[in-house]
Specification:
alpha+beta; Phosphorylase Kinase, domain 1; 3 domains; seven-stranded antiparallel sheet; 8 helices; 7 strands
Amino acid sequence: MNNRPITEDDLHAYVDDVLEPERRAEVGSYLADHPDVAKRVAGFTDQRELLRSALAPIADEPLPPELNLSRIVEGQRRRSPPAWWTIAAMLLLSVGGLGGWVMRGSLEAAPSGLAALAQEATYSYNVYAPDRIRPVEVRASDTTQLVEWISSRLNRPVKVPDLASSGYRLMGGRLVATQHGPAAMFMYDDDHGSRVVVLTRPMSSADQNAPITTHSNAGATGIAWADDGIGYSLVGPAPPNSLKAIANEVRRQAL
């Protein structure tokens, strides 16, 4: 039996129908057992259909004459026989121009910096925190292995925050794929079964240092910040003031 965990990439590939049949069946079974995640995946599907509907009228528009590949090639042929690299450049120009024509004004820029990290942490929380079977890939009993594995993937030493003073014990963690590279996710719970997630990864050029900021995405509240090129986001069901106190503890330990 395949015990590979279901990742965020698997969920998006499931929506796009690009998974191998066996893996698709595994994701389908996972969604059947996790209605909260299935609801979010259904939202992805609805967004995809809305996007397709929005783009359909533009995609059906005739291509502007200046982007017509036949006319470009014919014009070049009349002036002089092009070299092979010239033809390749014209092909790239045509494809790039067509993509820009179809997508113009239809999509907003993806979030970056601290906003992107906050969104990634919320997605990870919504996927893994409700999971009562395998919320983490490496459990707290194997913390040494977890730290070595994640540090090697992030190419820098990673510390696992100790939140015992805040009433939360470490459950374990996993490596999470994001649009900005791999991130470390640590999960904690308290005596009442409440769970919080800490997501951390190196930041790009945006928000190398950023103060603690409250964020709210997809119905979850979190706290995000960055210090010396490393970003952190804490997400959980606690009130913002309580989360901020926990975030301050994480930040103190990381400095």
